[in-house]
Design a protein that fits this description.
Layout: H1 24-33, E1 48-49, H2 61-67, H3 78-90, E2 95-99, H4 102-113, E3 119-122, H5 127-135, E4 139-142, H6 163-173, E5 180-183, H7 196-209, E6 213-216, H8 220-230, H9 239-249, E7 252-256, E8 267-271, H10 274-287, H11 298-311, H12 314-333, E9 346-350, H13 351-354, H14 364-376, E10 378-379, E11 381-383, H15 385-388, E12 403-407, H16 415-430, E13 438-442, E14 453-456
Parallel strand pairs: 1-10, 3-4, 5-6, 6-7
Antiparallel strand pairs: 2-8, 7-8, 9-12, 11-12, 13-14
The protein binds pyridoxal-5'-phosphate.
Pyridoxal-5'-phosphate binds next to helix 4 and helix 5.
Length: 458
């Protein structure tokens, strides 16, 4: 097996789902109706949907079978205990609180610990995490290492926390910090992993200041695979063992099971602290549901439990990370500027570097994402000034990077789909100087990228 280099999807296709080919004229009309916001498109006019890897993956035969075991009892369902055992097999927290997705866990956690005057440091907060922190009046601070902000710099763990910056923040404002977060992998910083060495060191800093450490664990298995393949002395460890060590280093976690839960919906909040758990469960009951189902049906709990068993399979993870790198390598060879090394779940195109004639406040990431759709029906996601440039006081500034994320749904597209993406991206890049920027015609006060409407400039 080892000497063959062709990527083999470690599964056969068991049920097929049609995707629709559209003409460029149809796509142009769809864009105008959507206010040039790809989130507003009808998904059936998208050919290859790389908007997100969240909840968009294919479930396995065994997950669909597990769904038939779903027990919909309101309280104490057997499906809850199956879910709890699967979570605790990887992350041995005392309290696991099921939620309908990751942001519900964030909302509950930061309602409990946030508030005006508080500061929450992270390597990089994901957009929903930042929004939930800021919604409570607290400040969300990103302290990723300097290499993590430089798209072209090669570093094996660009998601690492800047330990000196964390130490300085805790020294200056320790009393305002209820907890420290680490996001694995660092989605907003290019899907970059955090090393075990860095996690252990963050734990040590937190211990010195008496602060709890929380994980945003959405892509824990991909992060563990990077640790196994990139970090000294980790190659011989089973991925599951690495995941368990990560779980043992932290005091709690938020999780979206739509990523490395291999499910279409779901999440959890887990904590060790009994008083915090009680406070969070009371909040859960207000908006999500009873603590043994949270925002989920029994069948969802079963699908997640089975997904957690499958996601630490090393044949799966090897295929997952290799096939993402296949897309990255091909785009790199075509001269398209990219965040390097490639992330686990996505390849990030550096729109600011590809489109230097479009200033950040005319949204180069948006321009590139729209053109990939217009040309080839490929839907990616702007991660840049549209997503992060608007501040709570209504002012706007350039984000640190203007990226377009091509996120790969898990176990969904084949290598020939990816070859098509490469062909379209090459064509768009060859015409880069002809692309124009956008202005925002209408936007909400927060999380504007989801619903804003745009107008093309020029
Ligand atoms: C790192 C990270 N944290 C949190 C979330 C939020 O999860 P959800 O979409 O399930 O609410 C996401 C989702 O994309 C994410 O990537």
């Amino acid at each position: 097996m080892d000497r063959w280099t062709t990527i083999i999807e470690p599964f056969r296709i068991h049920a097929v789902e049609p995707i629709r080919l559209t003409t460029q004229a149809e796509r142009e009309a769809a864009l105008e109706a959507a206010g040039w916001n790809l989130f507003n498109l009808h998904a059936d006019v998208v050919l290859i949907d790389l908007l997100t890897d969240s909840g968009t993956g294919a479930m396995s035969r065994d997950q669909w079978a597990a769904i038939m075991h779903g027990d919909e009892s309101y309280a104490g369902s057997p499906s809850w205990f199956t879910f709890l055992a699967a979570v605790q097999d990887l992350f041995p927290f005392r309290h696991v609180i099921p939620t309908h997705q990751g942001r519900a866990a964030e909302k509950i956690l930061f309602t409990a610990v946030g508030g005006a005057g508080k500061v929450i440091p992270s390597n990089t907060h994901f957009d929903t995490t930042r929004a939930n922190v800021e919604f409570t009046g607290a400040e969300a601070v990103d302290l990723v290492i300097p290499e993590g902000r430089e798209p072209a710099t090669i570093h094996p763990f660009k998601g690492n926390m800047d330990l000196a910056a964390l130490d300085a923040l805790l020294t200056a404002r320790g009393a305002d910090v209820p907890l420290v977060m680490v996001t694995i992998t660092n989605n907003s910083g290019g899907g970059q992993p955090v090393s075990l060495e860095n996690l252990r060191a963050v734990r040590e800093v937190c211990d010195r200041f008496g602060k709890p450490l929380f994980l945003d664990g959405c892509r824990f298995a991909e992060n563990a695979w990077f640790i196994k393949t990139r970090e000294p002395d980790q190659a011989d460890r089973p991925v599951k063992d690495i995941v368990r060590e990560i779980g043992g280093l932290v005091d709690g976690m938020t999780m979206s099971a739509k990523k490395d839960g291999l499910a279409n919906i779901g999440g959890w909040l887990a904590v060790n602290d009994d008083a915090l758990a009680e406070q969070c469960r009371n909040l859960l009951i207000l908006t999500e549901g009873f603590p043994t189902y949270g925002g989920l049906a029994g069948r969802d709990l079963e699908a997640i439990a089975q997904g957690l068993r499958e996601v630490v399979d090393e044949d799966y993870l090897r295929y997952r990370i290799t096939s993402t790198a296949y897309l990255g390598d091909a785009l790199d060879q075509a001269g398209i500027p990219l965040v390097k090394p490639y992330g686990g779940h996505a390849v990030y195109l550096d729109a600011r570097a590809l489109l230097p004639h479009i200033p950040p406040l005319e949204y180069p990431g948006q321009a590139l994402a729209v053109e990939l759709y217009r040309a080839g029906g490929i839907r990616g996601c702007e991660i840049g000034t549209v997503m992060f440039g608007l501040h709570p006081d209504g002012t706007e500034s350039a984000a640190s990077m203007d990226l377009v994320r091509l996120a790969i749904p898990r176990r969904t597209y084949t290598q020939s789909h990816i070859d098509y993406v490469i062909e379209v991206a090459r064509d768009v890049a060859s015409r880069a100087s002809s692309l124009r920027g956008y202005r925002i015609a209408k936007q909400p006060a927060a999380l504007r990228h989801f619903t804003a409407r745009f107008q093309p400039l020029g």
